[in-house]
C-alpha cells in the first residue's frame, strides 16, 4: 500500500501487511536515517501494536510526524 503523507518532510510511505503484520516499510523523502530506522523497528510488528506505539507522536512544533503518519496510514489500511 502507498500512503501520501501530510505535514511532514516525507512525501509517501509504502508498506505491506501480511497476516496482520507489517513489512517493507519505506518512506520517500524525510530524514533518511530516521525513516530507515523506523522501518526496521516495525518490521514484523502487529499492525495494532504499531498504531498504538506511533499514534500521536509530534515532530517539533508540528502536530504530526513520520511515525504518526505511518499510524494514520495503518488506520486507513485497517478500515479497508
TrEMBL record:
Catalysed transformations (reactions): a 2'-deoxyribonucleoside 5'-diphosphate + [thioredoxin]-disulfide + H2O = a ribonucleoside 5'-diphosphate + [thioredoxin]-dithiol
EC numbers, comma separated: 1.17.4.1
Record domain TSCPD: where: 2-77
Biological process terms in GO annotation: DNA biosynthetic process
Keyword NAD: no
Enzyme class at the top of the EC tree: oxidoreductase
GO molecular function, one term: ribonucleoside-diphosphate reductase activity, thioredoxin disulfide as acceptor
Keywords: DNA synthesis, Nucleotide-binding
Pfam families: TSCPD
Database matches in InterPro entries: CHP03905, TSCPD_dom
Superkingdom: Bacteria
Protein family per UniProt: Belongs to the ribonucleoside diphosphate reductase class-2 family.
Name of the protein in its database record: ribonucleoside-diphosphate reductase
UniProt organism field: Clostridium porci
Lineage of source species: Bacteria, Bacillati, Bacillota, Clostridia, Eubacteriales
